Amino acid sequence: MQALILAGGLGKRLRSMVSDVPKPLAPINNYPFIYYQLRYLEKYNFQKVFISIGYKKELIVNYFKKNKFSFDIKFIEENSPLGTGGAIKHFLITQDSGIDDNFFVLNGDTYFPIDLSEFYKFYLNLNSDLSIASRNMDKNDRYSSIDVDENNRIIKFVKPNGHSSLINGGIYIFKKNKINSIFFANRNENFSVEEDIFPIAIHEIKCHTKKFDTDFIDIGIPDDYVRASDIISKI
């Protein structure tokens, strides 16, 4: 299996807390945040992990010169900010021949330690083109809500309204040969997969979600970054 971690963002909202390193290297209990993501991936049968890097990318590269993991790691460099969608598009263009037919994508600023084997079986059993790992969130005022039918197929994304809802957990599985046209067609370099791609994809390909009750943390804002040390200390 292969995974892409989206770690090229500028992390502007977190600068008041972490200004000297890029967000993937933000320290949590004496280790950089990306350390926990990669140790989590080591529990599963990944042969290669791609990491999309941009802001202060040399610091991330230097970290991996000193720290090794059980799978091969390859960096995909962004010369300018690409957004989550642009980063996946850049990955598909530059690494096409080396990408598996089915691959995982993880947001570089969220920690959602679901059972990836269970998620992959769900994806395969439904012959899905895109599967999104999700969870319930009380008083959701930050994330788009996911509406599903009785077969777990995604039928709508709804703006947050402060109520309890099913949210995108930032872990995806893509079928490569079904998404190229959606990502490439009439797209600028910088765009969002959540805002610009998913609402279109649900009408063009088979998109499903599986709900998990696992802890979830997004370190993108200071309040949640502070909370991360308690949640991640459980692993």
UniProtKB/TrEMBL annotation:
A Pfam family it matches: NTP_transferase
Entry keywords, A to Z: Nucleotidyltransferase, Transferase
Enzyme Commission identifier(s): 2.7.7.13
Nucleotidyl transferase domain sequence ranges: 3-231
SUPFAM superfamilies tied to this protein: Nucleotide-diphospho-sugar transferases (SSF53448)
Molecular function via GO: mannose-1-phosphate guanylyltransferase (GTP) activity
Top EC category: transferase
PANTHER family attached to this UniProt entry: SUGAR-1-PHOSPHATE GUANYL TRANSFERASE
Protein name, per record: Mannose-1-phosphate guanyltransferase, putative
Higher taxonomy: Bacteria, Pseudomonadati, Pseudomonadota, Betaproteobacteria, Nitrosomonadales
